[in-house]
Each structure stands twice: as C-alpha cells, then as structure tokens.
Amino acid sequence: MSENNMEEKVEQATNSKNVSLPMSRVRLIMKSSPDVSCINQDALFLTTKATELFVQHLTLSSYKNGSGKETNTLSYSDLANAAEETETFQFLTDILPKKILARDYLKSLEEMEKDDDNL
C-alpha cells in the first residue's frame, strides 16, 4: 500500500460522518468520570469522532516514522518512538513507554542504588 493511498483513506475517514469506534464504549468511558452526569448525543458523537481522528493521526505519524514501511506494519515500538520523539505526543510517554529488557532494568536499578550509596 503506497503512502498516498494511505493518506487518501485517512482523508476519506476524516470527512466521513460515520464513526468506527463504538459510541457505547466511549459513553461508558465518559460516564466513568465523577464529573459527568449527563452526556448529550452531539457531545458523544464529537468526542467519538475526535478520538478516532486522534488515533488515526497517532498511527499515521508512527507509521511514517516507523520501521515497518517495507512490511506495511505498525509495531508497539513505532508508537513508543512517536510518543517520545514527537512533541505533540509527549503526554503519552507514560502510557507508551519504550520496552526494556529485565536485565537492563535491573542493571539500571543497581546503578541507582550505587549512586544513592555514594551520596
């Protein structure tokens, strides 16, 4: 699939009045907030559409900058890199951290403990 073809599909989805995310799930997530008591149908539709467009933007930018262009795939590491390297997605770094091996994590913990002991 070419990059232009991918962008055309995104453009069509953006201009569409249909949503592909289930509105019932979005409503459930919105109602989980204690500040929300009633949800207007228009607000539900707009929130669902905005979420859909955000996910499309995140995946498209991750795909463009990712390693899976040749195989036409998108991996977790592509999403994590986009979250870390793109200023727009910086708020996602806690949700999409880069994966590290357990031995690397344990090594960094040991180094932190040594640094604390030296103080």
TrEMBL record:
InterPro entries membership: CBFA_NFYB_domain (IPR003958), Histone-fold (IPR009072), Transcr_DNA_Rep_Reg (IPR050568)
GO cellular component: CHRAC
GO molecular function: DNA binding; nucleotidyltransferase activity; protein heterodimerization activity
Gene3D superfamilies for this protein: Histone, subunit A
Major location category of this protein: nucleus
Protein localization: Nucleus
Description of how the protein assembles with itself and partners: Heterodimer with POLE3; binds to DNA. Component of the CHRAC ISWI chromatin remodeling complex at least composed of SMARCA5/SNF2H, BAZ1A/ACF1, CHRAC1 and POLE3; the complex preferentially binds DNA through the CHRAC1-POLE3 heterodimer and possesses ATP-dependent nucleosome-remodeling activity. Within the complex, the heterodimer with POLE3 interacts with SMARCA5/SNF2H; the interaction is direct and enhances nucleosome sliding activity by the SMARCA5/SNF2H and BAZ1A/ACF1 interaction. Within the complex, the heterodimer with POLE3 interacts with BAZ1A/ACF1; the interactions are direct.
PANTHER family from the UniProt entry: CHROMATIN ACCESSIBILITY COMPLEX PROTEIN 1 (PTHR10252:SF54), HISTONE-LIKE TRANSCRIPTION FACTOR CCAAT-RELATED (PTHR10252)
Protein name, per record: Chromatin accessibility complex protein 1
Originating gene: LOC113119357
